[in-house]
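User: I'm putting together notes for a lab meeting next week and I want to include a structural view of one of the chains we've been expressing. I don't have a solved structure, so I'd like a prediction I can at least talk through. The sequence is below, exactly as it appears in our construct file.
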Amino acid sequence: MLNSGEETTKARILIVEDEILIAKDLQKKLEQLGYTVPALASTAKDAVEKAGQVQPDIVLMDVVLKSKEDGIDAAEKIGSLYGLPVIYLTAYSDQKTLKRAKVTEPFGYILKPFDINLVSITIEMALYKHRIEKEKARLTAELQKSLAHIKRLTGLLPICAWCKKIRNDAGYWQDVESYFREHSDVDFSHGICPDCVEKYHKEFMQNRS
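Assistant: Thanks for the context. Below is the predicted structure for the 209-residue chain, given as structure tokens.
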């Protein structure tokens, strides 16, 4: 996993590009910037397979590929299967393409020809955003798990003014301890408060004398 301040030397990038010369040139430039490119893919099917095999930190995806499925199809599958962030690198900016691309919730959309420095900046922002989203998802899952263990008592409780038993929903009277054990996750430990020590201890000692 990436640590803060180490993105440019640690990020592993999958390049999906069907023009081999463009893919090789992009790979060379990214490696010069300190990134690692563990694989290249040229078709949508190859992209999905290699994403699963190498588990990159991010995917640079060309939209138009020489295959039945295009880069948008591949990005959708990669996101669904592996949850990896995708940045589109494409020469297409028409509304139809943009509309399809938006549905896959990409972490960037860069038009060709591109500046490698802009690509690097977009990668860093995407990695940061993806890391924050994963952390938020983790915290949300922990919160939901915690809330699932919380039972809350609300409303009015009918309680006997004399013996302090509570009337349950079925109309039966229960002692306080059993009622709260049944309706919450609390348990009881027993002790004697100072007032009772003063009152009952004295009575006990007087009765013994």
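A couple of points you could mention at the meeting. The helical segments are 7-10, 20-32, 44-54, 71-82, 95-103, 116-148, 176-183, 194-208. Confidence is low (pLDDT under 50) at residues 1-8.

User: Perfect, that's what I needed.
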